[in-house]
Amino acid sequence: MTESDSPVVVPAAPSPSRRGRPRYGLIGTAYWAGQVHARAASTSDDVEFVAVLGRDPARTEAFAADWQVAAHLSLSSFLSQVDVVGLAVPPSTQPELAVAAARAGRDLILEKPLSLSRPAAETLARQVTAAGVRSVIFLTQRFLPDVEAWIADCRRWGSWTYASAEGFSPLLLDPQNPYHCSTWRHTEGALWDAAAHPLSLLCPILGRVRAVSATRGRSDLTVLTLVHDSGAVSTLALSHGMHPAAAGSRMVLSGPGGSTEAPAITEWNQRAVEAYRLALATVLGARDQVTGESELSTDVHFGAHLTAVLAAAEEAMAKHREIEIAMP
């Protein structure tokens, strides 16, 4: 597969759901696809979960049987049966599949990171806009009511000078971790897998990122220093190579008026199912979307900005200097 603008065959529009709800189809059959995407879609009041698309026939059939949906190995046949597409695939694969779904007129729930390539992410964002479909990038915390309330409070409280965030896990060390077998996470590390979570909270409060410095340490450690549109500075320390005793995440904002800490998330998978149901409602318009302020968006364009930040971090480490991010 390539991440190009090559044309695809657009399937016929799907027939209406028997129960009047939009039909949801899932691309992907790995752990996160089942534990979060499928579980949330199957219990959503907003969609009817009808189909799954996978690469491996046996695994796809088994996944489909578990969730009592139709199994597909052909993208064209899959798209002909759904209205909304959820993607739970590696970031190298996601852009091509998402572009095909957008061109077929299907609304999208995308995973982070949108892509491992800034050009591919920006191409996807342009294609989604051209197709006129709705999109959400599933940034778990952004769809949790307590976190949304905290972000709103932070925006009301006034200016912030500095923020610090940590995200540590033993993913690369622990064979029992459900994501340990994820090839792309081993290759790309915590920077590409985990940075989107703190960034999804920082950008609505401090503004989008305009410059990045980064340092790579031992044990998959990456430390980023970010300058935001507001002039505030934030630092992120991320690693998937930490001992379980050091695992966890934390974010603190500081300014002239004091400091505040982001809500802690426990029972991550359970909360992610709750969040995904709200993401489904958002993309379908059943829940009000914030408009007018780009840093509050959770659409494909915000996902492209996050990819630009991570690509800039890689460049900063390679060139040992700060990298400015030009807006597309």
The count of DSSP E runs of length 2 or more, i.e. the number of strands, is: 13
Choose one word for the global shape: globular
Low-confidence stretches: 1-10, 14-18
Strand order of the largest sheet: 12-11-7-10-9-8-13
In whole angstroms, the N-to-C terminal distance is: 25 Å
Content-based structural category? alpha/beta
Instruction: Assess the beta-strand content as a share of residues.
Output: 15-25%
Radius of gyration: 19 Å
**Number of helical stretches of at least 4 residues:** 10
- The residue-averaged pLDDT reads 91
Key traits:
13 strands, 7-stranded mixed β-sheet, disordered N terminus, 328 residues, alpha/beta
Walk me through the topology.
Blueprint: E1 23-27, H1 31-42, E2 48-53, H2 57-67, E3 70-72, H3 75-79, E4 84-87, H4 94-103, E5 107-110, H5 118-131, E6 135-137, H6 145-157, E7 162-168, H7 183-194, H8 196-206, E8 209-216, E9 222-228, E10 233-239, E11 248-255, E12 258-261, H9 268-283, H10 300-319, E13 323-324
Parallel strand pairs: 1-2, 1-4, 2-3, 4-5, 5-6, 7-10
Antiparallel strand pairs: 7-11, 8-9, 8-13, 9-10, 11-12
Helix pairs in contact: 1-9, 4-5, 5-10, 6-8
Please, could you describe this protein's structure?
- The protein is of the alpha/beta class and 328 residues long.
- 38% of the residues lie in helices and 21% in strands.
- The chain has ten helices and 13 strands.
- It has helices spanning 31-42, 57-67, 75-79, 94-103, 118-131, 145-157, 183-194, 196-206, 268-283, 300-319; strands spanning 23-27, 48-53, 70-72, 84-87, 107-110, 135-137, 162-168, 209-216, 222-228, 233-239, 248-255, 258-261, 323-324.
- The strands form two sheets. It has a seven-stranded mixed sheet with strand order 12-11-7-10-9-8-13, with helices on one face. Strands 3-2-1-4-5-6 form a six-stranded parallel sheet, sandwiched between helices.
- A hairpin with a 2-residue loop joins strand 11 (248-255) and strand 12 (258-261).
- Helix 5 runs antiparallel to helix 10.
- The protein is globular, with a radius of gyration of 19 Å.
- The model is unreliable at 1-10 and 14-18 (pLDDT under 50).
